[in-house]
Design brief:
- Helix content is 33%, strand content 23%.
- The strands form three sheets. It has a six-stranded mixed sheet, with helices on both faces.
- Strand 2 and strand 3 form a beta hairpin.
- Helix 3 runs parallel beside helix 8, helix 5 packs parallel to helix 6 and helix 6 packs parallel to helix 7.
- The protein is globular and about 50 Å long.
Length: 350
């Protein structure tokens, strides 16, 4: 009886002992945890999720990878509410006209007059791509072309950014986006002309490259002496791409008086049409020594543009092409003036 009673008592004691040990371990762990919370070196900091940003009322952000991705599919400088139309005005001698007022402009979309909501004539920064012909026919013109490009850069807004594409058989990026004129000038000293002319490929490359631009205002300057005889892209494909982009095209054309081939004869027409449709201009070079002055004039145009903003009366997001026309009623005493503005835009599709 004693052995049975003693065995039961020892077994019961062992169970109670184990429970007591577990309780002591739990108490020790709790104490250690409280101590860890008091020690700042052992704290785990959980960053709260950032507050959701307010829905923007203006254009989408223009910096950062997310913005570049969002803008890669844009067709024109347009958001849900506002369309921006940059333009220049010239007189009968093709001289730049500044100092005009908002009340003198009238804007139409698909022949329906629109109310101009914003008006600006400020020298805002521009993202500029330079597309330089380096084909064999440029051999005796490349020095002047290089000088004119550098002068164009030096007379631009100091905040402008630039990239340079050179092309002969194929386009090649000479210098990526930069605001350093010295860097671009140094790179241009290394280029050498030769081979054939892939003008259309170079324009296509330049317009696509412009999707990485920092600024909303964008322009491409083409310096070329002839037509295309090497490209993979067709004229129709390039025209469509330029039409869908929000990039103005300017061109300095160093054309031969007697073009030997069909491509050379069509070169001036191509550059003229691309420029006119986007609100830019083609400048023909009759004397190579005038190239620097022409480049300076284009720089002045970009720095003295008017920008009209309006909210389309047609709010449908149908992705369709909408024709835009800007009319000007100049003050009394001025000669007839010409407005250079893009011909339209694609409405948002969603």
């Amino acid at each position: 009886m004693v052995s049975t009673s003693t065995g039961w008592s020892m077994s019961r004691l062992a169970r109670h002992g184990r429970g007591f040990c577990i309780l002591l371990v739990a108490l020790a762990f709790a104490c250690a945890l409280l101590h860890a919370q008091d020690d700042p070196l052992n704290q785990i900091h959980v960053t709260p999720p950032p507050a959701k940003p307010a829905v923007p009322t203006g254009p989408p952000p223009v910096e950062g990878k997310a913005a570049l991705k969002a803008r890669s599919g844009e067709r024109i400088r347009v958001d849900v509410n506002l369309v921006l139309i940059p333009l220049t005005v010239t007189d009968p001698l093709n001289r730049l006209v500044t100092g005009l007022e908002r009340k003198e402009f009238f804007l139409y979309e698909n022949n329906s007059q629109q109310e101009i909501k914003s008006f600006s004539a400020e020298d805002a920064p521009v993202s500029i791509g330079i597309v330089m012909d380096l084909s064999g026919s440029m051999n005796n013109k490349v020095v002047r072309a290089r000088e004119s490009i550098v002068e164009f850069l030096r007379t631009s807004n100091p905040q402008d950014e630039f990239f340079i594409i050179g092309f002969n058989d194929r386009p090649e990026l000479i210098e990526d986006f930069t605001s350093s004129v010295d860097d671009i000038e140094a790179r241009l000293q290394t280029v050498r002309p030769g081979h054939r002319t892939a003008l259309l490929d170079a324009i296509y490359y330049g317009v696509n490259k412009m999707k990485q631009a920092r600024y909303e205002r964008k322009a491409i300057l083409i310096v070329s002496d002839g037509g295309d005889n090497r490209s993979r892209y067709t004229e129709s494909e390039v025209r469509n791409l330029v039409r869908e982009s929000d990039t103005e095209v300017f061109a300095i054309g160093i054309f031969d008086a007697y073009a030997a081939t069909t491509e050379e004869r069509n070169g001036p027409l191509l550059l003229h049409d691309l420029s006119e449709e986007t609100g830019g201009q083609l400048f023909r070079v009759d004397d190579i020594s005038d190239m620097t002055d022409i480049a300076t004039k284009i720089s002045a145009e970009l720095r003295n543009q008017y920008v009209l903003g309006y909210k389309p009366a047609d709010a449908k997001r149908d992705g369709k092409w909408r024709k835009v026309k800007v009319k000007l009623v100049p003050p009394p005493g001025l000669p007839p003036l010409t407005v250079h503005a893009r011909s339209g835009y694609y409405a948002p599709s969603q």
